[in-house]
Design brief:
The protein is of the alpha+beta class. The protein has three domains: 41 residues, no CATH class; 64 residues, no CATH class; 51 residues. It contains one helix and 13 strands.
Length: 179
Amino acid sequence: MGSNVTTLNYGDKGVCTDDSGNLVCCFDHTLVNGKCVGCTIGFRFKGGSCMPCETNRYGKLCLQRCTCTFNQRCDNVLGCVNKTIFTQPASSQSTTCNTENFTQTTKLNLSEESEITNPTSTKKSSDGLLDREIVICTVVVACIIVILGLSYLVQIYRKNKKESMANTAQRTHSIKEFL
């Protein structure tokens, strides 16, 4: 809870009451120019001010968790974003650019690096199965169906073969009796 404030109005955004019934700024809000202001997405109220989300956290109130690949990093606002590193020499216009589609390299002596990120959608495990898992499940189910079908066909074949052999033996016995 924030500090006791008398300029706040009950029902305003970010305004709560404490145990004594006094109007105060709600959790994760701070008083700015007489109004309770919440931290923007990717930030959380800590130590009297809004601070960026901790490592591998992002989003509103930093409640989302990043599960980035090796070529991504966790952005406190967007989640997992692609890493793209551009290297440019301090005394030349040559550029080394490493992107997903092509690589152009120029030999450099003195360089300074800066990291530029491209936002990508973050797939959360809570959204459901991943595409790879769906494919694996489909293949497993198809294999089970094929195995059951083949087992059924083998049983029918064996039954028909047994009946055929019984009929042949019966006909042979009948022919011997006839002769």
